[in-house]
């Protein structure tokens, strides 16, 4: 499994109502094969944002800041809190703040939510 799938599964089980549904299924007699989990050895770069700092500013249309930062981290990046010359990208929503202005001043590439998804998900799906 790649990091996006792992993140999606983790997000699913972080939600209490999903855990309750699984418990109800088990109580009703639903079973499945359980496997022993092994930690995979690193296979090189984690994704298209490997080692890059990405700052999320403002509200995005369909994901929370935490979800966007988790996606960035799943792609090997680091979610930054403020823009600097070390910042690779700034992801800006509709009501972007001074972080957007600073990114433009520093000539940091600015992405919207769709561009972030295209950069991360599309690239990782091809691997």
Note down, in words, how this protein is organized:
- This protein is of the alpha/beta class and 127 residues long.
- The protein has a domain of 73 residues: 3-Layer(aba) Sandwich (Rossmann fold).
- Helix content is 43%, strand content 13%.
- The relative contact order is 0.18.
The CATH topology assignment of the domain at 53-125 is Rossmann fold
Question: From the helix content, strand content and strand pairing, which structural class follows?
Answer: alpha/beta
List unreliable stretches of 5+ residues: none
Query: How many individual β-strands?
Result: 4
Helix content: 40-55%
Rg value: 18 Å
- Number of helical elements: 5
Order of strands, widest sheet: 2-1-3-4
Which architecture of the domain at 53-125 does the CATH hierarchy give at level 2?
3-Layer(aba) Sandwich
- Termini separation comes to 11 Å
CATH hierarchy, class of the domain at 53-125? Alpha Beta
CATH superfamily of the domain at 53-125: BRCT domain
Strand content: 5-15%
What's the overall average pLDDT, rounded?
82
Main sheet overview: 4 strands, parallel
What is the H-and-E element order? Answer: HHEHEEHEH
Shape: elongated
